[in-house]
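Possible regression after last week's pipeline update?

I re-ran a chain I had predicted before the update to compare outputs. Posting the input and the new output here so someone can diff against the archived version. Not blocking, just want to make sure nothing changed silently.
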Amino acid sequence: MTDQAIKVLLVEDDEDDFILTRQLFGEIESVFYSIEWARTAAAAIDRIGAHQHDVYLIDYRLGESTGIELLIKAQNLGVKAPVILLTGQGEPEIDLAAMRAGAADFLIKGEITARSLERSVRYAIERKRAELEIEKLAAFPRRNPNPVVEFTAGGAMSYSNDAAEAMAGSLGETSIRAIVPQDVAQIVAQCLRSGTTRNLQTSHGTRSFVWSFVPNPEGQVVHGYANEITERLNLEAQLRHSVKMEAVGQLAAGVAHDFNNILTVVQGHASLLLQARQDDAEIAKPLRQICAVSERAGNLIRQLLMFSRKQVMQPRHLDVNEVIHNVSRMLQRVMGEDVALEVIASAQLPSIYGDIGMIEQVLMNLAVNARDAMSRGGKLTLSTTVQSFAEADTLLNPEVRAGSFVCISVIDTGCGIDAITLNRIFEPFFTTKGMGKGTGLGLATVYGIVKQHNGWIDVESEVGMGTSFRLHFPCSAKVSTPHAGAPSNEQKIRGGSETIFVVEDEEPLRELVTEILNLYGYKVIAAESGLEALKVWETCHHEVDLLLTDMVMPQGVSGRELAERLLKENSQLKVIYTSGYSPGMAGKDLALLEGFNFLPKPYPPSRLAEVVRECLDGTNVTTSTT
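New output (post-update):
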């Protein structure tokens, strides 16, 4: 006999039947039963609602009420304990109605023995416990936040939980059946035959899923679990794109130095020859072509460095509205008569900290692409707004950062971009234009410049519906500074009689710079390294007005270190830095030169003369922000 009694509520309007039933329970030796008696349905309902009994024995006939009616009321009260119905006669229709109503068993009073009563009660309690366990197990997949489905051995879907149907609804489908793999019957058969799990990746529109098909141990059904991996795949694609961009950027930065030195020499000598032999048509024409081609090569290197975010910036606090207003004058001519240009500038726009030339390059590249996409005419809209992003927004897009940003929108009504091409538009050298009509660096350059300004780009496009580029730049707390304007042309460049100290390790380039500066009247003292420059300085420091130094040089003394040591001895010394390297390849020295007098290679003779004159006249004063 067990220590814990089984509590029974007997609902019976006949006292003799109650006494007889209690006696039968008393004859059961294996279990002790605690019997409570309710004579009417009204008296029983309150005790049933207390949920304190393990089983209910209810007489079918209870005056004006029936046991089935009381059973239904008990179920409405949430009673989980089993109900056994008692009747004086064996009536099949009552038996069937009781079972349909949820009765655990149906006993005929005249046929009840202690053994049959004990067996009925025990089975009813055990069966109810099993049903409750099954309900708990069934509730797990039903309440699982991940989609769960079940397939029969023939591949037919026999169950789907709420999450699965909700996923189908989010995809615009009425049932999960619409998005399960088409060959699910074959997959189920393979799972049951091998007894192993199978994984399958599927897609529905722009969303991707991984299905895991797991056979049950009995080998009768297969459970399918769907996991959406759209966000993960997007993040992986962005990571691959970032790695690919970085690889190309490192390649570009690695070759930039040698190419830029070579191009400076080629362009410089060609320009000097052209200046001396302009009257000789046979010589002047090829020299102009050499100058033009070397300039194109230099532009390609610059675009690669911009793309790879390794171009030295000359930043200041910019009024983006002013930049767009100035560029729009040129853009209207570039776009042609068939394309309308609209500028919508937001009032009270904060400034950004950026390089005006780079921002103009971005707008020009996007405008040219938009023009090519509107071969039959259309409209290009440039607009500015301020947008704020919270931390929650960064979870949806890994490029987004919390804070306030100036947004430049460039929207066209052109042919649009298909989804496959859209994933590749920022790749360097990728172009949909015909051979010889594009380098594939336009949008790559845009990408690099925006990234170098600590911003990001959102692109939306649909074939036949146009394209929208939204560029986000961090807001600056400072007021924008006025732009000095375009550089003067070669005819206005003045020379001088000052002494220039040229430190350059590339001999052909050192000789070229010396020749150019001599042509403009300057006296030149030259050294091939920083170490040699320190020795030369000891004898000529009193006559040097300006130091023009390469940044990366052999023998352990860089251009920056050289300048710092010379400035300690002569604080009035003017300094111009130059390099064919990018910041990433030249190290921290070059990266710290943003805002300094920096002359990137390659440069034409006129640009060298112009920068030297500006620095000597104090137009651009070398200042340190470190």
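Follow-up from reviewer: compared with the archived run. The longest strand covers residues 378-389. Marking as no regression found.
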